Amino acid sequence: MSVSVRIPTILRTYTGGNAEVSGEGATLRDVLAKLDSDYPGIGARILDESGKIRRFVNVYVGEEDVRFAQGLDTPAPEGAQISIIPAVAGG
How far is CA 34 from the centre of its chain? Predict the structure, then answer.
């Protein structure tokens, strides 16, 4: 299934500067695996060593925060937009 993945500025060096790329997979896990296959190294910036979404990275499938859905097993329906958003801190 084809989806679009929005890439934050900090990770665009992996995608050749593209702010949005195509992805494929039935679940978020599948989409991220394909994304890392197409853009080597990007997966390590999204997932930690144990394969979980990094603490300071938020991922949405459509409008839904996957942390409150099924995590990496959240379905990625055809045409969905996946947004990767690094947390921003400041004071």
Answer: 10
Name the DSSP class of 30: H
18-69 tens-digit pLDDT: 999 999 999 999 999 999 999 999 999 999 999 999 999 999 999 999 999 9
Distances (CA, A) of 84 to 1, 24, 91: 18, 15, 23
d(CA 70, CA 50): 17
Could you identify the residue written with the tokens 């947390």?
A: 87
Whether residue 74 contacts residue 64, with contact meaning beta carbons closer than 8 Å, is answered with yes
Beta bridge partner(s), residue 12: none
As a whole number of angstroms, the distance between CA 86 and CA 24 comes to: 22
